[in-house]
Design goal:
The structure holds two protein chains of two kinds.
Chain A lengths: L3 E12 L2 E12 L3 E6 L5 H8 L7 E6 L2 E2 L4 H7 E4 L11 H11 L4 H15 L14 H12 L6 E5 L7 H16 L3 E5 L3 H4 L4 E6 L2 E6 L1 H7 L5 H10 L6
Parallel strand pairs in A: 3-8, 3-9, 6-7, 7-8
Antiparallel strand pairs in A: 1-2, 1-4, 4-5, 9-10
Helix pairs in contact in A: 3-4, 5-6
Chain B lengths: L1 H17 L7 E6 L5 H12 L3 E6 L5 H6 L5 E5 L3 H9 L8 E6 L3 H14 L4 H4 L2 E6 L7 H31 L1 H7 L4 H30 L8 H25 L3 H19 L11 H7 L3 H13 L9 H26 L1
Parallel strand pairs in B: 1-2, 1-3, 4-5
Antiparallel strand pairs in B: 3-4
Classes of the chains: A alpha/beta, B alpha/beta.
Chain lengths: ~250, ~350
């Protein structure tokens, strides 16, 4: 078995009477693409926020990149990358400036920043766009750039919160190629998504319903287990029992 | 929604009843070497007038202190031999003035209104009008610039610091970059202070500009010392920034931040801080309300320092209030900011 990068035990988060995340446990291994699925309101975002050190669990424990999520949130932040659902680079800065800004935020030295910038731009075939304002790029390019920037400091884990919502199928395809490439390089990918076809690209998938992890396995085995033709069907079967509305 | 309904009502009430450019509750002190019947008669007339509040008898050497500290706005100085001279005047004999009114003219409105009232209160004929003279202190030429410069300062800094800061922080939230910054190793407090710095710098530049313009173009004296004015202004800038931070923690969109700033800050600051309408005239309720407006304290202190020549030490009360408010704003907003992460 390969190295565990994320490990969660009995993680629970309550807001008053409402239990957003109820006693979830799972492990994510190095180099995996871990799909974190669930309907809106199932508790995905809350769970992910706890893993990123943005929110303290009510009870339970977990480690991310070897750091405790309750006590070492600041260390976790240094070792993870994060790309949010909403496009979140600075539109009024150029491609190069955005990379430089986030490299500085993550504490890369000047020398490394220069090297890393060339490397990322090269990989994206973006070298000609270095001085283009991010605001003027098409959405698909922006998303790719955002992913590249999330990995600027070579994090062990990258959290992607619905990275491809609103992106056209071709760009989505290209985007997933980038994800594969990063995973092959040893980066662990933790991704939430709405698209069930994307779920099939993942190494393993967990499905959250009503704050609990109801299923966790490879897409193929999940389909077998639920006697389903596709992940979409698996998801529907599980989500049917959901008590919480959208 | 509530705000939309409430604002017109508050405005109506404020403009209708509370706020008038009419001046009343003018504090007046009296210096009288002899308190004879005739003196008491004149003092009584003044004291019973609705526009004036009789502060009490004071000594000659207290005049400057009382005026400078803003405890009184007018001091009436009675000449010695008041009774005898009044008789001369009644008899139609020429006489030197027997009452001198020393008026704090740093607020031009109040000063000219006070003089007009005093003229109408004092007994009558033309020859008797000659019996008093007025002296304008602090602003002998009754320049209105003296009045509005502190007001403008109080307003501009709140605008630039509070509104701009809150909007710029909220914009990061709205666009989504705040989320990414929060997941980064940069501490939230650092992000917030980094957002504040540019507006702080801009405000400092504006402060220097205003002070230069006020002094060299408008001839505002700044007799209390530029450093005092400068340091109090820095405190006020800091207060405005923390207020902006507070607004940014309670709002999610730029529009909301702007609305809150405008409705909750701009309107009260304009109306209740003494920029336009003298606070002394407010009914008790609004006078109390004006106490929670930071600009009120700042403007009052700056007026004293710029025009009445008070030193920084003389405005310790305003300074303390501003300091306290800043502490509260910073405390609450940092707490709120951290809660949000939670």
């Amino acid at each position: 078995m390969s190295k565990t990068v994320i490990s969660v035990r009995n993680l629970t988060k309550r807001f008053g009477n409402f239990t957003a995340v109820n006693n979830i446990s799972f492990d994510v291994y190095r180099g995996e693409i871990f799909g974190f699925l669930g309907a809106n309101g199932a508790g995905k975002t809350t769970a992910m926020r706890m893993l990123c050190g943005l929110s303290y669990p009510t009870s339970g424990s977990g480690t991310v990149a070897g750091f405790d999520i309750t006590r070492e949130g600041e260390m976790i932040k240094r070792h993870i990358g994060y790309m949010s659902q909403r496009f979140s680079l600075y539109n009024d800065l150029t491609v190069g400036e955005n990379i430089k800004l986030f490299a500085a935020i993550y504490g890369l030295s000047k020398q490394n920043t220069g090297k890393r910038t060339d490397e990322l731009l090269d990989r994206l075939n973006f070298s000609s766009e270095r001085n283009t304002l991010v605001g003027s790029l098409p959405l698909g390019w922006k998303q790719k750039l955002a992913f590249a920037i999330a990995t600027v400091h070579r994090p062990e884990v990258v959290f992607l919160d619905e990275p491809t919502s609103g992106v056209d199928p071709i760009t989505r395809r290209q985007f997933w190629e980038m994800i594969y490439e990063a995973a092959e390089g040893g980066t662990t990918i933790f991704v939430t998504t709405h698209y069930m076809d994307e779920a099939e690209y993942c190494s393993r998938v967990s499905i959250m319903v009503d704050g609990e992890v109801r299923a966790l396995d490879t897409p193929a085995r999940l389909q077998q287990q639920f006697a389903a033709e596709s992940m979409n069907e698996v998801f529907r079967t599980l989500a049917r029992d959901a008590e919480r509305g959208e | 929604m509530l705000i939309v309904m409430l604002i017109p009502v508050i405005l109506m009430v404020m403009f209708g009843f509370a706020i008038s450019t009419e001046v009343n509750n003018i504090n007046i002190a009296v210096v009288a070497p002899e308190r004879t019947g005739a003196v008491k008669d004149v003092v009584g007339r003044i004291a019973h007038n609705d526009y004036f509040t009789f502060y009490g008898y004071i000594d000659q050497d207290q005049i400057d202190k009382k005026l400078r500290s803003g405890k009184v706005s007018v001091v009436a100085v009675f000449a010695s031999n008041f009774d005898r001279r009044m008789e001369q005047i009644s008899a139609g004999l020429p006489s030197k003035p027997v009452i001198q009114f020393i008026v704090d003219a740093s607020n031009v409105n109040t000063a000219s209104a006070s003089i007009a009232y005093l003229q109408s209160i004092l007994p009558g004929t033309a020859s008797q009008q000659a019996m008093f003279e007025t002296r304008m202190l602090f602003n002998p030429q009754m320049k209105s610039a003296y009045n509005f410069v502190p007001g403008i300062m109080g307003l501009i800094f709140i605008l630039v610091c509070a509104i701009m800061t809150s909007v710029s922080i909220v914009r990061e939230k709205e666009v989504g970059t705040m989320e990414v910054l929060l997941v980064s190793p940069v501490r939230p407090v650092k992000i917030v202070f980094a957002k504040m710095i540019p507006y702080f710098v801009i405000s400092c530049v504006i402060l220097v500009m205003i002070l230069l313009l006020a002094h060299y173009l408008l001839d505002v004296p700044m007799s209390g010392g530029v450093w005092g004015i400068f340091s109090l202004s820095l405190l006020y800038l800091f207060l405005s920034l923390s207020l902006g931070l507070l607004i940014s923690t309670v709002t999610k969109t730029q529009v909301a931040a702007l609305l809150i700033s405008a409705m909750v800050m701009l309107v009260p600051v304009l109306l209740l801080s003494g920029i336009i309408f003298p606070i002394e005239n407010f009914p008790k309720f609004f006078e109390l309300l004006s106490n929670i407006i930071p600009a009120r304290w700042y403007i009052a202190a700056i007026r004293k320092m710029m025009i009445q020549g008070a030193a920084l030490a003389a405005v310790w009360k305003e300074g303390t209030v501003l300091l306290g408010m800043t502490a509260v704003f910073i405390g609450v907003s940092l707490k709120k900011f951290n809660d949000k992460l939670e």
